[in-house]
């Protein structure tokens, strides 16, 4: 009608004339219909925005939406993974315990051993939390995966560059201690958050002064080795993990809308509500499990430790 009224002019090379001409005569499952439907829908939306009846249209949708209940859809994912992760974690604990006993001299005085085994244990503890508390389909499960993945990349990166830096493992420790020092100094300057906080000043103080007196510990607000995490992923050959899973889970760390929409907003299947989304206030929405992905990274940790300390773990 807009075309016949001279209100809409279409370029001769546009796909719209073909769509308007053939739409009524093309089967719904024909591949060309994907193009036809999208072209026509886009044109209809433009017409609505400029329609003199837009006020009435908005009023209609508002009134009908208020009179009819929502029909939320709660997503769920079938768990086809049959692996017993509790057994796997227990087996990993035994292997780490054996290695620590066998390499006792290193555990007493080797910064590299401390960092590698400590970070591996840290990651394994996070995985254990996810498994024990059944967080694999939750927001925190994605936080956990992202943390474990970054911890693994840091260790793999340090191993790659250690031949170029004599004291790289001690430097890495002191870098992390410096990250603790800044909040400690700020905490000493204020009285506003001293009550009922999980920041325990005596514990933080003792950790900061463990290697050097705190006066000699630098505070570095940049990335370690001045390289961004993306560069480290690329240097150790894990670019795909960064571009897909790390970037995806980063949305959950920062609470960006994509993560909020997936985890905390339900799709309303009521056509009269124009398929809006509504908050999951009953906490029913579940996401796909992170356990298989965490398992893969933890296994990479095991392989890394095995190769570094010549253990033939299966």
List the topology elements.
Layout: H1 16-22, H2 32-50, H3 54-67, E1 72-73, H4 85-102, H5 104-109, H6 111-132, H7 139-161, H8 168-189, H9 201-208, H10 229-235, H11 239-254, H12 257-264, E2 265-268, E3 277-279, H13 291-308
Antiparallel strand pairs: 1-2, 2-3
Helix pairs in contact: 1-2, 4-6, 6-7, 6-13, 7-10, 7-11, 7-13, 8-9, 10-11, 11-12
In round numbers, the mean pLDDT is 86
Beta percentage is under 5%
Instruction: Kindly report the spatial arrangement of strands forming the biggest sheet.
Output: 1-2-3
Rg calculated over all Cα atoms: 28 Å
Amino- and carboxy-terminal Cα gap: 71 Å
Class from secondary-structure proportions: mainly alpha
Q: Roughly how much helix do the residues carry, as a percent range?
A: 55-70%
Please describe what this structure looks like.
There is one protein chain. The protein has helices at 16-22, 32-50, 54-67, 85-102, 104-109, 111-132, 139-161, 168-189, 201-208, 229-235, 239-254, 257-264, 291-308, and strands at 72-73, 265-268, 277-279. It has two domains: 16-73, no CATH class; 85-254 and 289-308, no CATH class. Strands 1-2-3 form a three-stranded antiparallel beta sheet. A hairpin with an 8-residue loop joins strand 2 and strand 3. The chain is elongated. The mean pLDDT is 86. It contains 13 helices and three strands; from the N terminus they run αααβαααααααααββα. The protein has 314 residues and is an all-alpha fold.
